[in-house]
Amino acid sequence: MDEAGRGPLAGPVYAAAVILDPRHPIPGLKDSKKLSAANRIRLAGEIRAHALAWSVAVASVEEIDRLNILHASLLAMRRAVLALSPSPAQVLVDGNRCPDLPFPTRAIVRGDDLVPAISAASILAKTERDKEMARLAVIHPEYGFDRHAGYPTAEHLAALRTHGPCPEHRRSFGPVRQVLQTVS
After folding, report:
1. Residue 118 and residue 114: Cα distance in Å, rounded?
2. For each of the chain's 184 residues, which pLDDT tens digit applies?
3. Alpha-carbon dihedral sign for residues 182, 152, 162, 69
4. I need a labelling partner for 177 at 20 to 30 A (CA). Which of 43, 122, 150, 170 fits?
5. 144: alpha, beta or left, given left = phi > 0 and alpha = psi -120 to 50?
């Protein structure tokens, strides 16, 4: 399992869980951040077609602001794993923190580079979050979400200062909170 979207100032955090089929290896799996968008999309299709099970879940902007980003990420991860069918025998998580699950769970630092199933989860979480940010870019074109996916780029920070936050912005994040304080 892995997540996508902990660092952005806007949008939900996504998590994915994947059980790969050892009879159908998928060449080219690696950390989603090291793949081009086209390769991520291609591999996401292969993962969906050949994995024994996969699931993608989210934690909303409201949950991020209420719980904090770490706990919201763990919540999205929990949702993704619990939605798998069949259930996993063991859960391997990218990073150093594990969600509370009714299965044996192990955190692996840099797991998205080391474990193919975590790489696959990284790819699904990233491609689904990117789709959501492209959708939000249509609704809120002034922020450029399709270009920076909500990360605090110079373009995004300038748009945030000019237009103020939209409902998709995480109010608990420093740059958004600062803009809100200058407006009020």
Report:
1. 8
2. 999 999 999 999 999 999 999 999 999 999 999 999 999 999 999 999 999 999 999 999 999 999 999 999 999 999 999 999 999 999 999 999 999 999 999 999 999 999 999 999 999 999 999 999 999 999 999 999 999 999 999 999 999 999 999 999 999 999 999 999 987 6
3. negative
4. 122
5. left
Instruction: Report CA Rg, the chain.
Output: 17
Q: In a 3-state reduction of DSSP, which class is residue 1?
A: coil
The model's pTM is 0.96
Q: Which domains does the chain have, with CATH numbers?
A: 2-183 (3.30.420.10)
Helix locations, 35-152, DSSP H: 37-50, 61-67, 69-82, 111-114, 116-139, 145-148
Residue 182, amino acid: T
- Is residue 103 within 8 A of residue 91, CB to CB? The reply is yes
Which of 67, 70, 58 has the alpha carbon at shortest distance from 12? Answer: 58
